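Margin note: ligand = TNX.
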Amino acid sequence: MNPASRRETPAVLTGRLDAVVPLPLEVLPAPGQFHLTAATTVAAVDDAASDAVALLRRRVAPLPSATAAAAGRHDRPPSSIVLTSDEADPALGPEGYRLRIGTERIEVVAGGHDGFLWAVQTLRQLMPPELGDAGVPPDGVAVPCASIHDAPRYPWRGAMLDVARHFFSPADVCSVTELLAAYKLNRLHLHLTDDQGWRIEVRAHPELATVGGQTAVDGGPGGAYTQADLTAIVEHARRLGVTVVPEVDVPGHTNAALSALGWLSCDGEPRPPYTGTHVGFSSLCVEEERTYGWLDDVIGELAALTPGAWIHLGGDESAATDAEAYRGFVTRALDLVRAHGKVPVGWGEIGAAELGGPTVVQHWFDPRPTLAAAAQGAGIVLSPADRTYLDQKYDESTPVGVTWMGAITTERAYAWDPARSIEGLDPDRILGIEAPLWTETISTRAEVERMLVPRLPALAEVAWTSEASREWRSFAARLAGHRGRWDADGIAWTADPSVAGLA
Ligand code: TNX
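Resulting structure:
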């Protein structure tokens, strides 16, 4: 660099191209920088970009609007950000985007609503972390010029929050959703019911929430979402590109329902509330017609509340249900979900039953029913407990969490290939991956965040970035730069020694 050009280098905060998690498909650096100031305008040429523009204003900078026409003219303001699908290349897919950062203009071209959002999340990470939410500093900030092309490896990139063992407020759930979206995860699976609590209002059976919602592990206060709460969570997530997948776990994991409605048990007796952490002791009475009428009421209300394509029926660890009766129940329950216009999802165990139609099966431990489900044509979401179970401790020093699967460091969460994780599974059946957070030992938002960060960003890169482009050291270096962003956002995180720059 000659001395003259060094003198020209402005003393403004500058972002980095090597900061993006998950790693984009292609990042081609170009000469120069784009200067973002408080006067930089934003123009959206496409209605599909409106949520992305709102996100940009909220999380990048509160920039003024320009009309698309003004942004396209030669006398346009000195710098502008333009979002357009005009040249959208169908090969981008619904989540793909191109980001062209020139010296005067940033152009975002996306395949649809979600692609625009992911482009803005990338742009946010390209900005210097100091930009924060406080507005643009007087000298503006700089972003290196580049051309970025990006699209995900898998369409299903999720996390699950267990709100049944401990209850988390709608504000907590929305905050976790922001974290998912920052790393381009697009499914929030809410485990709404379990032995220790029923967390969603069902108008046909109010006792489920009013009685079944009052307990939690260790006698905590419990709680339940009103239907309006769930609608708000779903809408907040939608605006971030995240689809809520609600789960009502049946026929096991149902003590809270059985405590609220005694007639769901074969003996008709309500069960005492349960606040311990054992599994596999409760069951709906799967032999009785009334159980299916009840399930139809519950699924009907849930289907009406959630615009996403899926409803999760659980189906795990039903040790208290006779094995043959379990299979019959699963086949019927899956059909019931389809009758309400949704695709049923269930934990791996349901693969032992006849699925009878489009189904998504969430693998977590035993490969046999997962393979049986794949052989029946089900789509598979991979949540192998030894890589994705974020309730497992990082190491023995982690204050909360469990260890039945062993410790899961960030490196362990990162270093696996979903396509080769189950021997004999056709990779074409794999929809993606999901990281569950069970909350028997976790009861505050900060504890949730410390279990998710930094492992969730690692899993997000596993789900988004092609296998050939992933490399642990590159990831760890990019990730370490995010600590300032977490701190600025007030997100708690774990100083995992497996990540050099975070320890
Ligand atoms: C197994 S994984 C469960 C959950 C527990 C978890 C604890 C699965 C489908 N069921 O009920 O919370 O282990 O790690």
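Residues 289-305 form the longest helix (17 residues).
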